[in-house]
Design brief:
Length: about 160
């Protein structure tokens, strides 16, 4: 027999993972915004970039590495966003269909909810860890992109 306190504990643990998912999704959106800004800047200056790349193959190599790093970063971000097989705490329609005309007791209700939380929490934890790993990789490639962009800008300023 589950108690209200046990239910509240498992509900809190489920909510923790739900909040973590929201935080990771927000981070993915920020990363995607940063990549979009960098791509927009590159597209805006594409004629100048082409001129520099035509003059020196080192510029072309750095630019290609920069684009490759940004594309890999986008791929990791999209992989993190795609991970959505999240377990919900209660599907009201399914639950009421399972009950039929029978009204559950409070303890049966809490037992059922706790069982759902116990199944959902580890699954959601794994999904969140996978998202975090994808975003960590995206962050590394985004950092690499900024290093390459800095090198590209310094090289242009130096050889111009």
């Amino acid at each position: 027999m589950a108690t209200q306190q046990q239910y509240e504990y498992f509900k809190f643990k489920y909510k923790e993972e739900d909040d973590r998912n929201a935080l990771l999704t927000k981070r993915a959106e920020i990363y995607l915004s940063i990549v979009s800004l960098v791509f927009t800047g590159l597209i805006f200056k594409i004629s100048d970039i082409k001129t520099y790349c035509d003059k020196n193959t080192a510029f072309l190599i750095i630019f290609c590495l920069l684009l490759g790093s940004l594309i890999v970063s986008i791929w990791f971000i999209l992989q993190a966003i795609k991970l959505r097989d999240y377990q919900e705490d209660m599907d009201v329609g399914t639950y009421t269909n399972e009950l039929g005309q029978t009204q559950p007791t409070d303890s049966d209700f809490f037992d059922n909810r706790i069982a759902r939380f116990i199944v959902a929490i580890p699954q959601n934890f794994k999904i969140n860890n996978d998202k975090a790993e994808q975003l960590k990789s995206a962050g590394r490639f985004l950092f690499l992109s900024f290093i390459l962009l800095s090198i590209f800008i310094i090289a242009i300023a130096t050889f111009n």
